[in-house]
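Fig. S4 source data, part A: sequence.
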Amino acid sequence: MSFKDHFSAVSGDYAQARPEYPRALFDWIASVAPGRTLAWEAGCGSGQASRDLAARFAQVFATDPSDAQIAQARAPANVRFAVEPAERCSLADASADVACVAQALHWFDRSAFFAECGRVLRPGGALVVWGYQDIEVPAPLQPVNDAFQALIRSDWPSERADVDAAYAGYAWPFEPLAAPPFELQAEWTLPRLLAYFSSYSASKRHRERTGIDPLTVHASEWRRAWGDPEATRIVRWPLFVHARRKPSA
């Protein structure tokens, strides 16, 4: 099965650059699961969410169609990684307590993936999908962040609009589960923030299209607005969660 691979070429940067999801999210996922035997994470990338799931489930099966991403994946021994598409998983029928997708559902063939969730989830199992939108920076950094984001806006793939819309309008399976609000935030230095921006698929496409690294265009403005580059500042992302429960019978 072919897939739109925007991340293999930046898999090393991606593994290092992504923000950490709040622990409360994973506590909640475990609380709504019918058991804690097996979690399936589809589109796991470098295993960021897999590691947190591993602290709450006996076994985690983490899949991604990118060999390069799986090669970067690191997690405890109770996580098994596999190069597999989300739409065709090797897990047995009715074997998983939860199916999770972190910031990746917009790349999937959703009808095929949702059908696979129906097959793989045990009765009463939960599908939990989450993502985060554009970064929110402190007010002094807003003008240069706006300029950077405008520079790469046309380089985002079309699926980015689904993230901006928080996956509104998707034809979800099963009955909804109400999720509490969660906040995604980090306390970063300037080099850490710029590494995150560099890992964007849009940054990669801009470099390929123009021959110019978009991070260098506004480098002096970032330094002036930030001050001491090793000083830390809090950045945030709007986080959205969709949760559904497979019928128990």
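Fig. S4 source data, part B ends here. The beta strands are 38-42, 59-64, 79-83, 96-102, 121-132, 175-177, 184-188, 233-237, 239-245.
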